[in-house]
Amino acid sequence: MAHRGASAYAPENTLPSFELAWEMGADAIEGDFQLTVDGHVVCVHDYSIERYTGIDRRVVEMTLSELRALDFGSWKGGEWIGVSIATLEEVLSIVPSGKMLYLEIKSGPEIVPELLKQVAKARIKAEQLVFISFDQAVVTRLKREAPELVVNWLVSLESNDGVISPAPKELLQVLKLTGADGIGVEAIPDISAEFVAAIRGGGWAFHVWTVDQVALARKLAQFGSKSITTNKPDLILRALRRD
């Protein structure tokens, strides 16, 4: 899965980044989505647009037209001057048949009605979509209002002398509580086959982010990770296809 598109090479979360990921053969793209002040869903990771535009304003306080007037590409390099922020509608429209889109929700539960509206309008199959969020309230609401959709909970992991926290038992409790279909965890090196098996054995899909190291990607694939998110889909695809 291409993290924010082929984001090692093109401006993250933009249409050129996603198109490059498809050209590289990615099975899926991952994008971040937020709600604007006038109710549109746009594809951007940071809550402030300063890193992309040099303007310290929050997405939630801006209209779509204000965001569209700005350059979201040149921060990555001169060849990307003039690249615009993408809307959810635009991203949905460029997912090829047989490929997938993972939508990371950066807003709170208030974004859910507009998300579902846009998905219903799009010419894309439900099985091509996976919604992901760190916010348990977002996961819960999505599964309550659209139980047919796949929704995964995201969580960061920590390791202290090889002991990972949260432990699988704690993670499984949240998965049951929210109704999530799976989990996406930070790909720390100490993840073991036993850790992955504890999640998968409970009936949940296991995913990892963000992996740009070939050895780690190979290990996690062998352990049974359903997806491996990477900034360099070309590198990781080549490595895994040789296995």
UniProtKB/TrEMBL annotation:
<dbReference type="GO" id="GO:0008081">
    <property type="term" value="F:phosphoric diester hydrolase activity"/>
</dbReference>
<dbReference type="InterPro" id="IPR030395">
    <property type="entry name" value="GP_PDE_dom"/>
</dbReference>
<feature type="domain" description="GP-PDE">
    <location>
        <begin position="1"/>
        <end position="240"/>
    </location>
</feature>
<dbReference type="GO" id="GO:0006629">
    <property type="term" value="P:lipid metabolic process"/>
</dbReference>
<dbReference type="InterPro" id="IPR017946">
    <property type="entry name" value="PLC-like_Pdiesterase_TIM-brl"/>
</dbReference>
<dbReference type="Pfam" id="PF03009">
    <property type="entry name" value="GDPD"/>
</dbReference>
<protein>
    <submittedName>
        <fullName>Glycerophosphodiester phosphodiesterase</fullName>
    </submittedName>
</protein>
